[in-house]
Amino acid sequence: MKEILVAVAIVVGCVQTAVAEGNTSAGQKVFKRCAACHAVEDGKNKVGPTMFGVVGRQAGSLEDYKYSDAMRDAGYSWDEEQLAGFLAAPRKHLPGTKMAFPGLKREGQITDLIEYLKTLN
Fold it and tell me: Rounded to 5 degrees, what are φ and ψ at 77?
């Protein structure tokens, strides 16, 4: 019986790891939609600011990027809740943002993208 419980625990652990990797991998695929305007390398801005280290960063805080007044004055950090709201509807979440992208409509894409962004640090 003990051997069966150990085997089940190992299988459950493997499944949980696979799910976490799947979310990150799926998020990396979703990010391809963002890559035209956003880089993932530290210090590399494009039309939009780099996404390197974005999770936990104060909104509008990169010194070498010219943000909209709305983004500079947002007053929050990019936690999962703020990212989810912004990624779903940027102009609704933060009126006055320069972000032209209309947003991701499927919650799964948003969750996966955030999981990917969390790896960029």
Answer: -100, 155
